[in-house]
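On clarity, I found the account of how folds are encoded harder to follow than it need be. Since the whole study asks how a given chain folds, the encoding of that fold should be made plain. For illustration, here is how one protein appears when written out as sequence plus structure tokens:

:::
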Amino acid sequence: MDLPIFWICAVTFAILGYFWVKKKYSFWERHGFVYVKPTFPLGNAWGVGWKKHNSEFFQDLYREMKGKDVIGGMYFLTSPSAVVLDLDFLKTMLIKDFQYFHDRGLYINERDDPLSGNLFALRGQKWKVMRGKLSPTFTSGKMKMMHSTIIGVALEFQKALEPHAQRGEEIELKDFLSRFTTDVIGNCAFGIECNSLKDPDTEFRRIGRKIFDFPPLGMLKAIFMTIFPEAARTLRLKFNSDTITNFFMNLLRDTIDYREKNNVKRNDFLSLMIQLKNTGKLEGDNTDLGKLTFEELAAQTFVFFGAGFETSSSTMAYTLYELALNQDIQDRVREEVNRVLEKHGGEYTYEACMELKYLERVIQETLRKYPVVDNLIRLVTNDYQLPGSDRVIKKGVGIAIPVYAIHRDPEIYPNPERFDPDRFTEENIQNRHPMAYLPFGEGPRMCIGMRFALMQTRVGLATLLNKYRVQVTQKTPVPMTLAPSNAFLSPVGGMWLRIEKI
């Protein structure tokens, strides 16, 4: 190719590319919405994952545009996305007009990655059918059935902390808590003694870490799969590694085969899943929920494990962090735990744990300051005309609900950095907008495992605080700095606290 022709082609390509990008970046202006000006090539996403955490990124956008519109526009690379700015519209979106916003827009490839077909990621009718099948397995009655299993692990947790408490050591408590919740979920989801409290390097614990391990290339692949799902499925790309998939599929096949051959029945989640696989019904209930395939069973059990151990351990870690900073609140929680235990003969019965109302408020305030899912994502499934307006949110646009930003909005929660469980008295809850607190989402797609998560969190904290005191040390992250690359809210350097025996 002659040099002049090369340069003519290059300049032409550059000019066409410039106008293509310019048009892409005019999307929100053309549709009449407030937006934050993007910068090519990352749009508004500069610094996310290496300079600031995702939660702080959306908090900045929320603060910049709040009060100017019900949603605000932004760009991820060149793709238009939006941020919810108004709580009344949020209620409309999550409840009244849910049919336009029922999907999360996550990548699914059930052919090559069967674990991706889980309730959290499923879309449309598939999600609706699966939710209907699983909802009866998460009732308060079913949770009560698993309570004794959680208590057994919690008492092992107490013992595991004993030698460190005797010496008044500072420990990275988040790791201990993750081992506790891994053992709880391993027991309740698979009926297996994981023993990660005794051995922190068990296979269950190592696989659990891999689920949320996102190396740089993995992050780039995840972004590609999210933006170009059809191309990714054509290329047979998978979100979960073969190591993770093979571990869970083989474990479930072996466990189910053993239970069915030996007629083993346990009070756990897997037992309920096996009932649905074989009969489409749960024992004691004649409702035909529809049978599960093995792959569907595996995907739901997998997400129960993945979502259950990391989220609850993070909540417990942040609760203990705040109690270490606020010893008066810690003393009040401990006093309540001791009083309720005495009333119930020293036993952590289901009824006793449900009576821990002040501890419940402490957990709620922790979830306000440190929501496990800091942003909820919804995909517009059909063109949506804003109520009372001629403006339309186009099909395919992703909308972020900035939970972290809403929970730290000083107009909703005065002095939001202060840890104050009394924000969650019945009176204060009633005086707030119903969409002002969203740690588990809201509406038909609200977290199905909320009861279980709160139950294991409550039990874990009660058993620890009954025997031990937590205090800050030189290594405690004060003030808190979030690790930018972590999928969840996680402090840089870990959660170091001193634990002492009472």
User: Anything to note?
Assistant: The mean pLDDT is 91. The first helix runs from residue 3 to 24. The CA atoms of residues 107 and 226 lie 6 Å apart. The longest strand covers residues 71-76.
